[in-house]
Design a protein that fits this description.
By secondary structure, the chain is α/β, with parallel strands linked by helices. 55% of the residues lie in helices and 13% in strands. The strands form 2 sheets. A 7-stranded mixed β-sheet has the order 3-2-1-4-7-5-8, sandwiched between helices. The protein has a two-stranded parallel sheet with strand order 6-9.
């Protein structure tokens, strides 16, 4: 406790030291610009401020906060935003002190620096250099060969059949497994149906929260609690039969991620979607390949398996909670250079699908742009 407190104060001392150096550069260069070079006060103020910003970013990143990570683009972007706001405050304060109150510009600059320094410290401490990524802990020992995560929203009628199919399949397999159903804020009795099945199916667990957060959030909640060497997430309607996992297990020895695909040779779609949904899906997949994931034919199939450590690493970085989470998952995986293998699967469309084609397609496209911006800014690094 004492050590943590001392470390906290050391950061404050270092930040204050950097601020003092930055202020000296700011005030000193302002004097040079105004008194020696005869530059107008407000222009000189802006130039001196830029010099101080560069100094402060470098020293705060590498010395104050000891941050040597690769996300320098994102941090510098944030630092510049904070600094621009600080510059606006500086100009307002300087104009007020110098022209409205008639205070000598050096004294005005010192008073202004104190105000802006307070803003910079709070903004940079709590935003620029604050790492909001919540690491998902790895397990020291795998308790199961496989964790099956099933996100469920208002699946009271279908979840029982899916759980029976999963249990029946793994009874004949050597792989030990746990099943984690995540109730994503259902308004029906999905939780009651799952709890009733726990008497008949061993190692079946329920994660539940009151508000609907989206499929991505539900899968992440299941991954957080997983204890299997491999993690498979599958849809609650069993649209990809659990038997398709037979194709995945051997490939997980060679690849960190194996994903089901409905659009490559060897796939078998037994019940097709309506034509308008097929068209929307193909258009969406084309945009995804152009903007983010070339050579991956089907990003949205809800049957994906990952090695334990890869899953925890990727999901720790994810920001998207709804249907775009599949795209984000694969984008992060590719950015981290994980090996991805696409496998043809059997698939049948459910007539009781929760997908709203147009609305969810627009939302997913917005999330696609958000993911691209995160990749550009280094937010996933």
């Amino acid at each position: 406790m004492l050590k943590a407190t001392l470390k906290h104060y050391l950061v404050l001392i270092r930040y204050a030291t950097v601020g003092t150096v930055g202020t000296a550069i700011d005030v000193g260069s302002l004097w040079v610009f105004v008194d020696l070079l005869r530059i107008p006060v407000l222009i000189g103020t802006a130039l001196s401020f830029v010099l101080a910003v560069i100094n402060n970013f470098v020293l705060n990143k590498y010395w104050t906060f000891g941050n040597h990570g690769p996300n320098i683009k994102r941090q510098f972007t944030k630092f510049c935003i904070v600094s621009v706001v600080g510059l606006v405050l500086t100009e307002i304060c300087m104009a007020f002190f110098v022209y409205a109150l008639g205070i000598w510009y050096v004294a005005s600059k010192l008073a202004t620096s104190a105000i802006v320094l307070t803003w910079n410290f709070l903004a940079n401490k709590n935003w620029t250099f604050h790492d909001a990524t919540r690491q998902i802990a790895y397990v020291d020992r795998y308790e199961y060969g496989l964790t099956i995560v099933i996100p469920a929203f208002n699946e009271e009628r279908r979840i029982v059949g899916t759980l029976e199919a999963v249990d029946r399949y793994f009874r004949g397999q050597k792989t030990t497994r746990e099943i984690i159903v995540v109730d994503d804020g259902s308004s029906d009795d999905t939780a009651g149906a799952v709890n009733a099945m726990r008497e008949r199916i061993h190692d079946l667990f329920l994660v539940r929260y009151p508000k609907n957060r989206g499929k991505g959030h539900a899968v992440k909640a299941g991954v957080e609690r997983s204890r299997g060497e491999y993690i498979l997430f599958a849809d609650a309607d069993n649209s990809t039969p659990i038997e398709e996992f037979e194709k995945f297990l051997p490939l997980l020895k060679e690849h960190q991620i194996v994903i089901g695909s409905r659009y490559i040779a060897g796939s078998n779609i037994t019940i097709k979607q309506p034509k308008y949904r097929i068209a929307l899906g193909r258009i969406g997949n084309f945009l995804i390949q152009v903007f983010l994931l070339d050579n991956i034919r089907d990003t949205q199939c809800g049957f994906k398996a990952l090695r334990h450590n890869a899953a925890k690493d990727i999901f720790s970085r994810m920001k998207v909670n709804r249907f775009g989470f599949d795209i984000e998952l694969l984008s992060i995986a590719r950015n981290l250079r994980y090996s991805i293998r696409e496998v043809p699967i059997s698939w049948l469309n459910s007539s009781d699908s929760r997908v709203r084609p147009v609305k969810d397609a627009l939302r997913t496209f917005t999330e696609l742009l958000y993911i691209k911006a995160n990749l550009w800014s280094g937010r996933y690094e």
